Amino acid sequence: MLRLQKHLSLHLQDLLPVHRSASLVQLSLERALLSTAAATYSFPGHFAADDYLVSACGLTREQAAKAAKWISHWKSSSHADAVLSFLTGPALGLSKADIRLLVAKDPRILSCSVDNTLRIRVDRFHSYGFSAAQIISFVRVAPCSFRTFNIDQKLGFWMPLLGSPDKFLRIVRRNLYLVTSDLDKVVKTNIRLLQECGLSVQECSTMCVANPRLLTGNPDTTRAILVRADEMGVPRNTFLFRQAVTAVASLGPETMASKLEMMAKILRCSDAEVARMVQRNPLVLTRSRERIQRACEFLTNVVGVDTKYIQDRPTILMYSLERRLVPRHYVMKVLLEKGLIRKDQSFYSMVTLSDSVFCSKFVHPHKDVLPSLADAYASACNGKIAT
User: Fold this and answer.
1) Mean pLDDT of all residues in the chain?
2) CA-closest candidate to residue 313, choices 341, 352, 358, 287
3) Which pLDDT band, with edges at 50, 70 and 90, does 210 fall under?
4) Within a domain: residue 375?
5) Could you tell me if 211 and 243 are in contact, meaning their C-beta atoms sit under 8 angstroms apart?
6) Which SMART domains does this chain map to (predicted)?
7) Which of 199, 248, 264, 274 minimizes the number of CB atoms within 10 Å of its CB?
8) Which among 89, 117, 148 is the end of a domain?
9) Does residue 32 have a pLDDT over 80?
10) What DSSP assignment string belongs to 155-205?
11) Which pLDDT score is estimated for 385?
12) Which region holds residue 383: left if phi is over 0, alpha if psi is between -120 and 50, else beta?
């Protein structure tokens, strides 16, 4: 710049008379020429990518250093500004935190065309029933996929199968492979394998909610799961077989063997007896050792049933000890003490009722005799047992 100024001063000396005065006109002319020359001869404006990512997108310096390579060749921020304006504008309404997440995970989003890419993608989401809030939820869950995944291909398949954007988002939060898995080679192959075992497409959809990797995992893994489910001895084409597949899919072979051994020890029974118990309710295998141990101790030591009673009714282990077993037993104990139910009343039948039905049969009918029973039961369900 200093050399440029000297060059201009000499140039001015050639243009102006030798005996000139330092007039305001001369000074103004010099400044104008300097300004014009600076604009004409200087290098293109430098775009500080790191600074822009920090100040405009909210990235940390470390994040910005990683992301800057995608935009460091730019001459200005005008394109990125337009992208951010669209993303935070009325069409979508991303927050500063959303922008920070999205740009950190996928900085190339800043290179997208607003009209030819972003606006079209938002419109395609809307065409499948997604609200702006649900699109934002997708951005938060799968920021790396918002720009890249094939909306019509993926949503065109999943939405009819799952039925709603909320269900789709609920599964994607647990399994991003719903967006990235190959539909023909992986997902549809897994559905065919499950159908061969007697499951309907709708049942496959239901199972996907509980364990999405059944549909998005390697088909060889799905085949192995179905073989292990068959080995449990549960007939195909039954609701219990669906439970068996769900249980096996959530447990590796070693973990499953350990669970069976643990249950045999807690219930003091043979392997064959545990196998029959699991056939009655395969999902009991998904309960933790602690939950099974505590429930069995309560049932045998407090309720007074034996382990054979539990083996024949494994579903009783699926209920919450604190929110179901203990409160229901409290009501049963009070009613027995007052002689308001038969002495041979089945505890299991009381446990399996829905809360509304249980109250209508065992709580509300006794409000005149036991006016505090309803409140005591509610307190028990909250972990507070009346003494």
Assistant:
1) 87
2) 352
3) confident
4) yes
5) no
6) Mterf
7) 264
8) 148
9) no
10) HHHHHHHH-SHHHHHHHHHH-THHHHS-IIIIIHHHHHHHHHTT--HHHHH
11) 66
12) left
The total number of structural domains in the chain stands at: 2
What is the Cα–Cα distance from 77 to 48, expressed in whole angstroms?
9
Domain range enclosing 90: 48-148
Kindly report, residue by residue over 56-74, the tens digit of the pLDDT.
999 999 999 999 999 888 9
Residues 205/161, Cβ–Cβ less than 8 Å: yes
Tell me if 11 is assigned to some domain. no
> Rounded distance, CA 67 to CA 78, Å?
18
The whole-angstrom separation of Cα 79 and Cα 49 is: 13
How crowded is residue 243: how many other Cβ atoms within 10 Å of its Cβ?
22
pLDDT band, very low/low/confident/very high, at 153 (cuts 50, 70, 90): very high
Q: Residue 17 in 3-state DSSP?
A: coil
All residues at 6 or more sequence positions from 193 whose CB lies less than 8 Å from its CB, including other chains: 219, 222, 223, 226
* pLDDT tier at 31, thresholds 50, 70, 90: very low
Element (H, E) at 332: helix 326-337
